[in-house]
Structure prediction request, 112 residues.
Amino acid sequence: MDLAEYCVTAVLVERRSIREVAAATGRSKSWVHGHVHLYKTGGAEALKPHKRGRKTAPNQTPATLEDEIVRWRKQLTGHGYDAGAATCCDDRWLRKQPSVVCSMPPSSACAW
Prediction:
């Protein structure tokens, strides 16, 4: 049993005051009251920690572009070129390749 569950049990089951439980646990009255409120509205599940981070990465390189860069690097290596970001993003090399269909090459920052 973690501290939040203990505080909720002490207040709701043992009928101890929020002030008394807060003093006994070293937490503030508002912290104890907040967890009691969470329990009353959402049950025991509401007391469990949950992730608060982003669910998506808006600045992540799209998977299709990643696959294209990997394909370019394999082609470059196969032709004996350096497969670095500068070569992948070189317009002159891309225009010579009939198999590469790309409206605009990726930036070198993307290919690094």
About this structure: The chain has a mean pLDDT of 81. Residues 3-47 form one domain.
